[in-house]
Every structure is written in C-alpha cells, then in structure tokens.
Amino acid sequence: MSKGISSQLILPKGRGFGLKDGVLDKDQFRKVIPVLAAKVPPEKAGVLLKAPALKRALIDVPKVKSVARGPDQQRLVLFRYTDQADLSPEALEFLQSESAELVSHELTFDYDYWSSDEVIHAILPEELEAEAPSGFAVVGHIAHLNLRPQYLPYKHVIGQVILDKNPSVRTVVNKLDNISTQFRVFSMELLAGDPDFVVTQSENDCRFTFDFREVYWNSRLHTEHERLIAKFSKQDLIADVFAGVGPFAIPAAKKGCAVLANDLNPSSFKYLTLNIAENKVGALVRAFCEDGREFIRQAFNRAWDEPLAPVLPPKIRRTEQKEIRAGERPAPPPGPPRNRIGHFVMNLPDTAILFLDAFRGVLSRANAGERDLSGLYGEASMPMIHTHCFTRELEPAKAEEDIRLRVEEQIGHALGEDATFHWVRSVAPQKEMYCVSFRLPRAVAFAS
Ligand SMILES: C[S@@+](CC[C@H](N)C(=O)[O-])C[C@H]1O[C@@H](n2cnc3c(N)ncnc32)[C@H](O)[C@@H]1O
SAM-dependent methyltransferase TRM5/TYW2-type domain: from which residue to which, for each copy (predicted)? Predict the structure, then answer.
C-alpha cells in the first residue's frame, strides 16, 4: 500500500529547515505531491463526490478542493492515494461503471500553504522547537511579541513568518524591556515590515490613534474599560486622572458623560486630543496635561468655575425635529451645565494609591478658595473613586485587606463597608491587578 498523501504533507520539525544563511528560504517549503484522480466530464464530478463507494477514498486535506480542472474541460476528482492499488474493489467497480479514467495529478504546496506555526516549528532547531513562540498581541496593524532570549537569533525570521501569514499585520515588533518608565511605555525593536508605529485601534465603538512606542495601550484592559464605563450614568461628570489616549474618557463621552481627562505624558495628551476630535466628542471632553496630583487638586474648582456641557437632550424623532424647525413645537431645554464630579478614574496601578492623599482637604477653603462647594458635595453626592492597583496577595481576602490598608493610609480615613474590590487580571505569577471603588469620605475632602 502506498503512503496516503496526508503523511507526505508534514513539514519536518526542529530541524532548522527552510533557512539559507540564516534567512528564510521560501523555496524550500515547496512540495509537489502526486495523487490519483478520476477524470470525468464536469456533470459527473458531483456524482462521484456523492458516491458511497468513494466516500473514504476522496482527498481530505485542509485547503485543498476535491475537484480540480483537468485537460479538455474535464474535471479531476482527487483521491487521497497515489496508487490505484489502494482503491477498494467497490470503488474501482464504481469508477468503471461511470467510465471514469484513472490518472495521476500533481498537487503543489508552497510556502503560502503552511500555517505560521508549521513554518516556525520547521525553522527552529530541535532544542527550541518544543516551546516555539506561538502567540502575539495585535495593536492596530502591529503584531507585538515578547521573545525569550534563546529565540532572539531567530527573531527576524519569526517576525517575517508572522508578517507573511497575517494579512492585517504590517509591522512586527519585539518588546525589549518591562514597562517600568513613568509613562508606562516599553522600548521595542522592529523585526519585520514597515517601520510605522502609529496605529489605529478600535475599542468600545471608538477609534484610537496613537504612536505605540510613545504611549501606554493595553488591549487586555478592554473589559475593564467597559466595566467602569457601564457604571457611569450619562448625566455624570467624570474625572480621568491617568487618561492615556482616552479609552475610558472617550467612550464615556460617547455615552453622554462630560469628562475632564488628564495625562502627564505629552504624547498621550497629543493623541488624547486627536482622538477626542476624531470621535467627535470635543463638546464633552476637556483635556489636560499635568501631574495627577495637581489635576485632582484643581478638578473640583475647574468644574465649578467652568461647568461642562449640559446633559444632552433625549434623542428627538425626525418628525419632531421638523416641527421644532417650523416653530410648531418648542425645542427641549438643555439640561443644567455639569459642575459636580461623579467619578474619578485612576488607572495607574503601580502608584495610583499614592496619589489618593491629594483628596485630603481638596474641598476645604484652603484648596477651594472662596468657592463654597459644601452644598454641591453632600454625604451621598461625594464622587466615587475608582483606583487601580497591584497586589502581591493572591488570595482575594488577603488582597482586599492589603489594598484597604494602603488606601486608608493615604486618605487618612477608614473605608466604608460599601468599598468594592474588583479583581481585574493576573499580571504576572505573583502580581494581581485590582480596582478598588469607594465613595470619597466627606470628612476627607473637607478636612482643613
Ligand atoms: C496604565 S496607563 C492607563 C492609561 C489609560 N487610562 C488606559 O486605561 O489605558 C497610566 C497612564 O498614566 C500616565 N501617567 C503616569 N504618571 C502620571 C502622573 N504623575 N500624572 C498623570 N499621568 C500620569 C501615563 O502616561 C499613562 O498614560
């Protein structure tokens, strides 16, 4: 019995195959495999494909059609074998009854046929094959890898394969260090493709443009962004202390919220401003580029001095719009301008808790000056503070205790029973990310 074609369609693994002088040699991936075929007129091809006698003999190879074009307008129904002797007597008898002629046909498989994993496993030497890199994150058109040191000699080849095999990827980069800088950016090197690092990424029905080398972006936070935005009502005024390029601020504004959005990184501020304009929420978002502590100290005063856009009126039906234009119906009155902050968002998990002391006395006369904000901020109308943080405690109860103590130390006040501790994700084996949400105690904000 001859070998079935599936067994010939396997690339070697762990053999350093497909490279020439350390560079990808696509020609080496070309394979020509002869298969047995039944030559029939076009109208007969369907009959053969449906025949029970041939069912087990038909070709069954991913991405290969069972029928190919033959000479003289004929069709070739392909089998999984190369040799006529491998067909069952029933199959042969059926083919004879249909006057099908058995011929040999060549199938060509080239570099494009193989999956990214198959090519990478073939290229790597044996000792690196078992744990070959398989995953990567995608931000806009950039595929972003985090290669371990032993794979670095193959980094450009791996990058090239990922580029070739993923049509939406135009640039492949490798992360060079851990995020440790103040602005949470990491350096990266180009492995393959265009040296173009300005991406456009969609999230929560908004489009974000930014230079991936210069600002923080993490697509894994998508659900966390969505979760907090769902907590805001469209009447709310939000203060986003570490706004980045706007993944909380801009979708919140799309929902109808007014937003004060801040980021100290000038590049984040530049793209935040651009994204506000591109998503057409300029009437609702005001952007700042200052230190988070200073932003918190000024936010209440700014909202009081220059209230933000009023709540949008409810959507008006077309017929009503016509009547309003014709003067037959009064236009709905705009809501009151928004001057009371309902939520603070503080997503800088490494150090956000350390900024909480900025809320101490923030509404006191010493900070608010002549403004009397005591009527606006009552016990029940104090803003909610959502602070992201890391903890080394893996057990939820211990994590909660650790975070609670650190927050209380900064605000100088006990957290109420209504404080919530939401687990966001595991960042590293011993590092969990949480979001603690609590209502700013009035006594803290008005403390002198
Ligand atoms: C973890 S990122 C979060 C960005 C965005 N909110 C998000 O969810 O993707 C933290 C942001 O805080 C900014 N940042 C760091 N230190 C800051 C500071 N002292 N004041 C204001 N922003 C700061 C960084 O530039 C970065 O954009």
Answer: 136-442
